[in-house]
Specification:
The protein is α+β, with helices and mostly antiparallel strands. It has one domain (4-104): Protein of unknown function DUF952 (ADP-ribosylation fold, Alpha-Beta Barrel), CATH 3.20.170.20. Helices cover 24% and strands 36% of the residues. The chain has helices at 11-20, 27-32, 40-50, and strands at residues 4-10, 22-23, 35-36, 57-63, 71-75, 81-85, 89-90, 94-100, 102-103, 106-107. The longest helix is centred in the middle third of the chain and has 11 residues, at 40-50. It is globular, with a radius of gyration of 13 Å. 27% of the residues are buried. The mean pLDDT is 94.
Length: 113
């Protein structure tokens, strides 16, 4: 599969990932046993549902082809398929990290690749 998937996380979590050389997931990811991602179409709802009102977030764009077999598409909300990574996220797979500002209580998404 080609294209991009997206991870929303705090800027602090992302700085830690850069220092460590890989993103190992949020507390929720650790609890669930995989790193949660969204497609471009799903990211807005993910932000609204799980990150409402949170400032200082980033949107991490990841090249699907760089993840290999550790990436699985699994049903979630109402049967929609969501990308889940059963490994740490190598920084080499990341194509862009952009701020996800909060304006009037809603996250403003940058153009996505």
């Amino acid at each position: 599969m080609t294209g991009h998937i997206y991870k929303i996380c705090s800027a602090a979590e992302w700085r830690d990932a850069e220092a460590a050389g890989a993103y190992r997931g949020s507390a929720v990811d650790h609890r669930d046993g995989f790193i949660h991602f969204s497609t471009a179409e799903q990211a807005g709802e993910t932000a609204a549902r799980y990150f409402a009102g949170q400032a200082d977030l980033v949107l991490v764009a990841v090249d699907v082809a760089a993840l290999g077999d550790a990436l699985r598409w699994e049903p979630s909300r109402g049967g929609a398929l969501f990308p889940h990574l059963y490994a740490e996220l190598p920084l080499a797979a990341v194509t862009r990290v952009a701020p996800l500002p909060l304006v009037d209580g809603r996250h403003v998404f940058p153009p996505v690749p």
